Structure prediction request, 753 residues.
Amino acid sequence: MRVLAAMSGGVDSAVAAARARDAGHDVTGVHLALSRLPQAMRTGARGCCTLEDARDARRAADVLGLPFYVWDLADRFARDVVDDFVAEYADGRTPNPCLRCNERIKFSAVLDRALALGFDAVCTGHYARLVQGDSGPELHRAVDSAKDQSYVLGVLTPEQIARSVFPLGGSLKREVRVEAAARGLTVADKPDSHDICFVPDGDTAGFLRRRLGDAPGPVVDEEGRRVGEHEGAFAFTVGQRRGLGLGRPASDGRPRYVLDVSPTTRTVTVGPRERLAVTRVEGIRPRWCGPVPAEPFDCGAQLRAHGEEVAATARLVGDRLVVRLAEPVEGVAAGQAVVLYRGTRVVGSATIDRLQDRG
Amino acid sequence: MAYLDHAATTPLLGSARAAMAAQLDELGNASSLHGPGRRARRVVEESREAVAAAFGCRPGEVVFTAGGTEADNLAVKGLYWSRRDADPARRRIVASPVEHHAVLDPLQWLVEHEGAEVTWLPVDRLGRVDASDVSAAIAADPGSVAFVTVMWANNEVGTVQPVADLAAAAHAFGIPVHTDAVQAAGQLPVDFVASGVDALTVTGHKIGGPLGVGALVLRRGLEITPVLHGGGQERDVRSGTLDVPALAGFAAAATEVAGDRPQRCARIARLRDTLVDGVRAAVPDAVLNGDPDPDGRLPGNAHFSFPGCEGDSLLLLLDARGIACSTGSACSAGVAQPSHVLLAMGADESTARASLRFSLGHTSTAADVDEVVAAIGPVVQRARRAGLVATRDG
Prediction:
């Protein structure tokens, strides 16, 4: 196959490209320039959006002997991922921009362009496995459970999965680093990327405040009593405990958590931890990685990146996905994805918009 | 493999290679007073004389540099500083907007850090500056002008400027003129004295010489402030131990291209014309940018816009077929920006992004041209499909 390897400048995508080449594919490397104003050097451990990362990607491609290009997707990324991220927070939701990027950029804009240019598939360094099933390729969890990234790929359709190559799903991260060093790739020791690539200093609240401005309002308890003030409701995430800045301790003296965020009324509601528990979620925009399930089905549900999988029953009601959880889960926020699994296979996903049955 | 990117760099001429090889095992710093130093200095000065003969100037007017970018920086910053220091009112630089980044970026730096102001000259749709616009730009306030800089020939679209006319227009006000002749050298009769300019940039690797060596030709008597300070090896204008093998190679290339230029360029121009005709036949709506008159453009240059295509896509597809060409401009991260040259010529942004430059040189063959002509139709067709995808909302 002619394979386009997305190369971020990190160790994973470099080894993935190398393995695709070794598997006999005709591989071309491409670095996606996603930032309109790329920083010259990395700050902290985030590694994909600086000029230094672009150079690292080019160097890896050169070592591997692959043709290499940079594709400028900064405008698409700003519109489809960053603006969407800000708008979601402004509406009181907690989006996962990596899912959005996979859905709209890597496996859409990039894949479409690759196919039009005569490539057959896109290869990335995601830790996930593709397994040939009865009705086509299936998306499965990676062998390395600590690195498994199948959650952020839960938005892919069968058509996108059929055009994907994930060479790292069967390996452990430490094996990938050893292999990178053996291949002479200078990124072998490069730190993993973390958090959100377009918030390089990790200060998401500050990023949102710069984009959305201050919007001070009250922090209230469940009875509606004002217990504090905040500079902007968008800086808070359901389940958050730290940084609430509450002057008065709770009457029972126990820690309080963010239960709800309502930017329209600029209100942040706090309460005790047990009130975070959720046993039922509903989601919009369901995406299926394989056949669309006709009946309610038993599955596992993962409600955030690196979250635990819990037993669940899911069914489609019209275009809404309703998921009943066998046990209560804390720290679930609207805007996050619920990704459904059967065994290690990813069944599909939806964007959570309603939480119910809090304890 | 068809190499059609001679405007980026040219294959080394055999004469240059031999001249360099003869120096690589020799010892000597041209500034040293002993025997090995004298030997090195003799090679340097013979190289200087050869370069001067090739470009129509006196040997004492040649300031060797480590390439075109350094020579342009020296000209732009050095002339600004010397002219401003002599008369603090002279802070205005008159420049064309189609300059190479080696001129544009120093200009921008002077604006941001040194109180300079740039008056941008208009260019026509071929990318050409008119001498009357130089006169008008200076006449608005002659006492404020430090110098004029307009390239001899454009690196993207190949348009040749009326350098002698521009120089005469500036000299009517007593204003010195710099020209970046990096692309013109070897392709056009570049004669420093005949052109009338006061400073001229050339570089080795665009004329079949080695990388990393060039020169600023500087009219005798013209004051210039150094950019590189140190041993003052080059007339106290430029410091740094001279690279003797590179200078020998540069001189050999300059001598060879000055000698065979008419025949070589006539052959290259014929190949270029065949390429242009073939591309137009294969892609009828391809637009040839720059001057359609062969006398008005570099003989090796063919620059097209292919409506509906991204230059990036075209380059990738041609590269995969073993054809090396260029989209014309790139930034450090390799992200293609719409060409500032085409934008200055009045092109819209999509046309400016849809461009591709084929540049021919001394090793180009009819087979190279045939490869491009055979590939360009299907490549453009495919790039158009990709272009439709790229603009569609995902």
Observations:
- Residues 41-47 of chain A have pLDDT under 50 and may be disordered.
- The interface with chain B takes residues 28, 31, 33, 38, 51, 54, 58, 67, 69-72, 74, 76, 80, 104-105, 108-109, 112-113, 115-118 of chain A (CB under 8 Å).
- Chain A has three domains: 2-189, 213-275, 277-356.
- The domain at 2-189 of chain A is CATH 3.40.50.620 (Rossmann fold).
